[in-house]
């Protein structure tokens, strides 16, 4: 009886202990987790923690989430929990500077009205009468408001950056001022900065990069014929300085010598520069120059950009479908490159955390003998790049021919560099006025007051929207999704040069794609052989067609074409050759598939089969050891 009572009591105590343990764990360790991702994407980065600790004024965050409407969407519900847990981590790490409010906006309530006033996005859900709110509104003590209209699950890998950027913008009242000079309509045609749009629907739209810059800095557009760069500019960004006047280059020279920070994008062949077509002269657009340079300034600073060639790179090539040119199949376009970690300078803060940059028909820089500056490459091509005459791209760009004739080199070409050090002016006598007279501006400097700091990039196209951002319509609103770190590179550069800690350490933290490099290498090798054979076949086809065309065609009275025995023999030989080549192509593709399938089987074995096999072998070994030990004990008895 006593044993039964003790057993019942023990069972009851065990149940109470189990329930209590779950309550304590759920209440105190709700957001605890082990982060096993490669870059600790689920742990607050040091940069975020530093920004939270440096906050001087309190910030209020209002997280709007319609829990009832999200019940039918398990994945979204799970993501909402992730967002809320991360917001709680921000609150804990802020030492009381962040006040978090979780709002569940009911229909026709004051919370729903306030969410609408903040501009948060309401999304209708099938089968639910209430719309879904899933956004964040942040406010500071001076009526500043920043929002995330809707947390897109597709942007989960940038969640920390988006949250930290919102907090940084609310807590940082010292915005740097950035001037922009460009021969391209980067700010749109007749852009109205107050409305954030162009005056005419038919005008050029602002580039997405301008919106990103305005989120972080005070941006001022300067005319291309500016005579003096205001000293209030913390940094100057020059984009495609095509045919700038001597006086404008002189103004930039003096700004840099006075301590101004310069970031300039130049290009041997800017694809984004679309010359206007002349109906009376169709060749004018093709012949129009599309390059930009700052020769005089670069040479004074110890480097130059080559004017004759562009950099092609098979190792970093992007796959592009050129339609009929490539039989509607994507091929490696060696002039468009996807640069990754191996191309970046890991010792520079600007590029150390970058994952991917997309460039198009980029140029290269050469360091001049006798330079007085320290030249540091920021990103470069691979060591298998080759140089292509830019006239090939301008007049007869053939992506298949570029790929077929590609010859890997052994040199890595710098595409972006940073120059720092003492320099002299490139215009010791000043610049020419409209009348042709040389004239110095007031306060002319013959040499730099201190070490200059200049970053030059040999590609303009990397700032074009299509190379770094995609937009999607989301219930009437345009949402942007970054596909590379192109804009991150520019903002990092501005922050680093102007001494802002900013968001450099977390801006590039999230990854984009994680490719299977071995599979890509196998595909590239097989495709190279495939394209070479394909080119040979096309050349044979063209040559045979030309020979047949030169033969005398005999026709009967009925008008039907009669082939001579010579023609029939030639066509038969060609068809035989074509069939053999096609078979070779199929063999190449079959071998490619075979190699990839073999690698796939190996990966599946190691990731899926190996662990159970090892566990099974361990169990068998353990059982055998126990039986052996038991038999040994029995024999001793």
From TrEMBL:
It comes from the Bacteria. Keywords: Coiled coil, Membrane, Transmembrane, Transmembrane helix. The keyword Transmembrane helix applies. InterPro entries: ABC_transp_unknown (IPR019196), DUF7088 (IPR055396). Residues 38-138 form the DUF7088 domain. The chain crosses the membrane at residues 605-627. Residues 523-602 form a coiled coil. Residues 175-493 form the ABC-type uncharacterised transport system domain. This is Gliding motility protein GldG.
């Amino acid at each position: 009886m006593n044993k039964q009572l003790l057993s019942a009591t023990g069972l009851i105590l065990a149940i109470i202990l189990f329930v209590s343990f779950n309550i304590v764990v759920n209440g105190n360790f709700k957001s605890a987790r082990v982060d096993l991702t490669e870059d600790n994407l689920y742990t607050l980065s040091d940069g975020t923690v530093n920004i939270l600790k440096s906050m001087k004024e309190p910030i209020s965050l209002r997280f709007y989430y319609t829990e009832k409407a999200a019940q039918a969407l398990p994945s979204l519900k799970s993501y909402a929990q992730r967002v809320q847990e991360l917001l709680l981590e921000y609150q804990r790490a802020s030492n009381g500077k962040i006040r978090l409010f979780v709002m569940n906006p009911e229909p026709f309530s004051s919370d729903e009205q306030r969410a609408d006033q903040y501009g948060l996005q309401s999304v209708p859900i099938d089968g639910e009468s209430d719309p879904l709110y899933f956004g964040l509104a942040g406010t500071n003590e001076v009526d500043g408001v920043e929002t995330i209209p809707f947390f897109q699950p597709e942007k989960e890998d940038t969640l920390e950056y988006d949250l930290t950027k919102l907090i940084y913008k609310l807590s940082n009242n010292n915005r740097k001022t950035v001037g922009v000079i460009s021969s391209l309509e980067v700010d749109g045609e007749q852009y109205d900065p107050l409305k954030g749009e162009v005056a005419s629907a038919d005008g050029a739209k602002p580039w997405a990069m301008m919106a990103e810059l305005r989120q972080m800095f005070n941006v001022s557009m300067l005319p291309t014929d500016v005579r003096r760069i205001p000293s209030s500019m913390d940094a100057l960004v020059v984009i495609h300085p095509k045919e700038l006047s001597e006086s404008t280059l002189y103004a930039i020279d003096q700004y840099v010598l006075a301590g101004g920070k310069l970031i300039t994008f130049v290009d041997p062949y800017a694809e984004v520069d679309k010359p206007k077509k002349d109906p009376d002269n169709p060749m004018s657009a093709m012949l129009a120059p599309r390059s930009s340079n700052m020769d005089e300034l670069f040479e004074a600073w110890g480097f130059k950009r080559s004017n004759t060639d562009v950099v092609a790179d098979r190792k970093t090539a992007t796959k592009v479908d050129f339609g009929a040119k490539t039989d509607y199949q994507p091929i490696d376009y060696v002039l468009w490159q996807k640069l990754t970690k191996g191309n970046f300078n890991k010792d520079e803060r600007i590029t150390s955390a970058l994952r991917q940059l997309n460039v198009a028909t980029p140029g290269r820089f050469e360091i001049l003998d006798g330079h007085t500056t320290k030249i540091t490459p920021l990103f470069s091509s691979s060591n298998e790049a080759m140089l292509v005459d830019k006239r090939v791209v301008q007049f007869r760009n053939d992506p298949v021919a570029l790929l077929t004739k590609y010859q890997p080199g052994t040199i890595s070409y710098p595409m972006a560099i940073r120059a720092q050090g003492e320099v002299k002016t490139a215009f010791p006598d000043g610049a020419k006025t409209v009348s042709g007279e040389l004239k110095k501006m007031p306060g002319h400097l013959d040499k730099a007051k201190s070490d200059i700091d200049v970053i030059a990039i040999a590609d303009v196209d990397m700032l074009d929207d299509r190379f770094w951002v995609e937009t999607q319509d989301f219930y009437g609103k345009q949402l942007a999704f970054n596909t590379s770190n192109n804009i991150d590179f520019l903002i990092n550069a501005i922050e680093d040069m102007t001494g802002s800690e900013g968001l450099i350490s977390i801006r590039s933290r999230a990854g984009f794609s994680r490719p299977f490099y071995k599979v890509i290498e196998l595909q590239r090798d097989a495709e190279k052989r495939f394209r070479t054979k394909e080119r040979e076949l096309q050349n044979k086809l063209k040559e045979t067609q030309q020979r047949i065309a030169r033969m005398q065609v005999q026709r009967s009275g009925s008008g039907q074409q009669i082939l001579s025995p010579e023609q029939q023999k030639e066509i038969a030989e060609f068809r035989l050759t074509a069939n053999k080549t096609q078979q070779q192509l199929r063999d190449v593709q079959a071998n490619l598939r075979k190699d990839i399938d073999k690698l796939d089987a190996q990966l599946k074995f190691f990731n899926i089969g190996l662990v159970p096999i090892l566990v099974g072998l361990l169990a068998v070994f353990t059982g055998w050891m126990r039986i052996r030990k038991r038999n040994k004990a029995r024999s001793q008895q």
